[in-house]
Design a protein that fits this description.
Largest sheet: 2 strands, antiparallel
Radius of gyration: 14 Å
Structural class: alpha+beta
Helix content: 40-55%
Number of domains: 1
Number of helices: 3
Order of helices and strands: HEEHH
Number of strands: 2
Strand content: 15-25%
Distance between the termini: 33 Å
Shape: globular
C-alpha cells in the first residue's frame, strides 16, 4: 500500500518542476484527457528518474490532493468525461 503527503515534503523546487514538465509531456503524448496519476522514482543525487506507472484515471489519492490544493479534481474530471471543458 502507499500514502500521499501533500504538498510534497522532500522535493526541491527544481525536482518538482522537472517532474511536472515530464508529466505534462507524457499526458500530451498519450493524449490523456481528464484525471491522470503518474508515479516516479527519483534519484535525488543524480536527478535521474524513471516512470513507474501511468494511470489515466482519477485515483483515490486525488481526494487528498484536491483538498490540499483547493482544486475540485473529481468535479473537473467528471465534466471532461462527459465532453465539457
Amino acid at each position: 500500500d502507499s500514502i500521499v503527503v501533500a504538498p510534497s515534503q522532500t522535493l526541491t523546487d527544481n525536482e518538482y518542476h522537472m517532474l511536472r514538465a515530464s508529466a505534462i509531456k507524457i499526458i500530451r503524448a498519450l493524449e490523456i484527457e481528464g484525471g491522470c496519476n503518474i508515479q516516479y522514482a527519483l534519484n535525488p543525487t543524480s536527478n535521474e528518474y524513471i516512470v513507474i506507472e501511468v494511470n489515466p484515471r482519477v485515483s483515490r489519492s486525488s481526494a487528498l490532493a484536491s483538498k490540499a490544493a483547493g482544486y475540485p479534481i473529481a468535479k473537473i474530471a467528471a465534466k471532461i468525461a462527459v465532453g465539457r471543458k
